[in-house]
Design brief:
This protein has about 140 residues and is an all-alpha fold. It is about 40% helix and about 0% strand. One of its GO terms (cellular component) is mitochondrial small ribosomal subunit.
């Protein structure tokens, strides 16, 4: 049969014959609309989001819109070490620079007034749920 097609001159190259047959019959499992709508699968998709874009991390205070106040000693004690009374660093707490500065100033103000102890955590706040784990920082230490 192929010999007769070649003799007639209809199929000089095999690609011409294959391309007409392939275009007329879609592959199994693909509808006619999908086969007709496809142009070239190698072209870039312009309206697709960047799959490599990193998700933006927000600190817990910004995400929940919590205002830092020196009178909120329960919140401030969450960011203070039980043993030293010092404020945890921002890479451990996961706070942004702005909120860390607010917590630091509110903590200093509360300690100066005397409503928050300097060296230990108030016993009423020992059993509070932890906002972060001081042994496993949320971000690596920048230093």
């Amino acid at each position: 049969m192929l010999r007769t097609l070649i003799q007639r001159g209809t199929a000089r190259t095999g690609s011409h014959l294959c391309s007409t047959v392939a275009a007329s019959t879609p592959s199994p499992g693909v509808s006619n609309e999908a086969a007709a709508g496809e142009t070239n699968s190698d072209e870039p998709i312009w309206d697709m989001e960047n799959p490599f874009k990193k998700t933006r991390r927000e600190c817990i205070l910004c995400r929940n819109k919590i205002e830092v106040d020196y009178k909120n000693t329960q919140l401030l004690s969450q960011f203070v070490s039980n043993y030293t009374g010092e404020l945890y660093q921002k890479h451990i707490t996961g706070l942004c620079e702005h909120q860390h500065q607010k917590v630091r100033l509110a903590l200093h103000h509360a300690q100066c007034i005397g409503i928050l102890p300097h060296y230990h955590k108030d016993l009423r706040f020992i059993r509070d749920p932890k906002l972060f784990d001081p042994l496993h920082p949320q971000r690596p230490n920048p230093h």
